[in-house]
Design brief:
Keywords: Signal. With 268 residues, this protein is mainly β. The protein has one domain: Beta Barrel (Lipocalin), CATH 2.40.128. It contains 1 helix and 11 strands; from the N terminus they run αβββββββββββ. Strands 1-2-3-5-6-7-8-9-10-11 form a 10-stranded antiparallel barrel. A hairpin with a 5-residue loop joins strand 10 and strand 11. The termini are far apart.
Length: 268
């Protein structure tokens, strides 16, 4: 009798397992079923990052005309922190830098006649750009960008402050894994300006209005290792326009700063 019960139980168990096995007909047992191909390659990271430090030796100046022309020229030394993110999946980039420096040598003049010197002052600036590089030949990428600029040009610690719009074109050429060249040029169609201009003798003139101009930068780099690049180049910015001032009449302003750059950058 017990043998008959055991046989009936075995038949019932077999009949319940058979449909389950039929559902997985032709497949390996669950414990041996591979989830992914063994030779599957990892997904490529589409983002490149750059962060580093720059030194900017700036030669700058500003002039204010209201009948007579008052001007100041100077030399400055600035340290910058900069960064860049390239997204290869969208051919876009985001970059920017923050700089601050000291004016170490300057001269005041009126109507092109020098009548004073100074050795104190500051320069501060911020740039942020977002760009798109649709042209890509493999070694060369090119496109356009839109950005924001801020500057504080203050001989004797007082001067005009600007907030501007940048519209430009950019390109980068890579020569193997060893060298690269980056270039950009931008127009500045609008830049709000406010603050004061210092005339020779210490008289301050309050100003407010808008300026326009252009900017450009070229850098050439050598890749020291897979993760470090040293670059050198030059940058220039120019603004001009008519503004309102404390004195009545038409007032014309010019501002510029240009000079060489050197940077050490980490890439990853």
């Amino acid at each position: 009798m017990s043998r008959i019960l055991i046989a009936i139980s075995a038949c019932a168990l077999a009949s319940s397992v058979t449909p389950l096995m039929a559902a997985d007909w032709g497949t390996s047992a669950p414990g041996f079923r591979p989830a992914y191909p063994m030779d599957m390659a990892p997904m490529e990271d589409s983002l490149d990052f750059e962060f580093g430090l720059r030194y900017f030796y700036g030669m700058g100046g500003q002039s204010f005309t209201n009948g007579s022309t008052y001007s100041a020229t100077d030399l400055s030394h600035s340290l910058e922190v900069h960064g860049r993110i390239d997204d290869h999946s969208t051919s876009s980039f985001l970059k920017g830098h923050i700089g601050y420096g000291a004016i170490t040598d300057g001269e005041f003049s009126m109507d092109d006649t020098t009548n004073g010197s100074y050795s104190t002052g500051r320069v501060g600036y911020v740039n942020a750009d977002f760009g798109y590089l649709p042209i890509n030949t493999g070694g060369v990428k090119a496109g356009a960008f839109i950005g924001y600029m801020y500057s504080d040009e203050s001989p004797q610690n007082t001067g005009p402050i600007t907030h501007g719009l940048r519209l430009g074109v950019a390109a980068r050429a890579e020569f193997g894994d060893m060298f690269d060249i980056t270039a950009e040029g931008a127009i500045i169609p609008y830049s709000a300006v406010s603050g004061s201009m210092a005339n020779p003798g210490g008289t301050l003139t309050g100003i407010e209005g808008s300026l326009y101009g252009a900017a450009g930068e070229v850098m050439a780099g050598a890749h020291l290792t897979d993760n470090f690049v040293i670059r050198a180049g030059a940058r220039a910015t120019y603004l001009n326009g008519h503004v309102q001032a404390d004195q009545p009449g038409e007032h014309y302003i010019e501002m510029f700063r240009w000079g060489p750059l050197v940077e050490l950058t980490a890439t990853f």
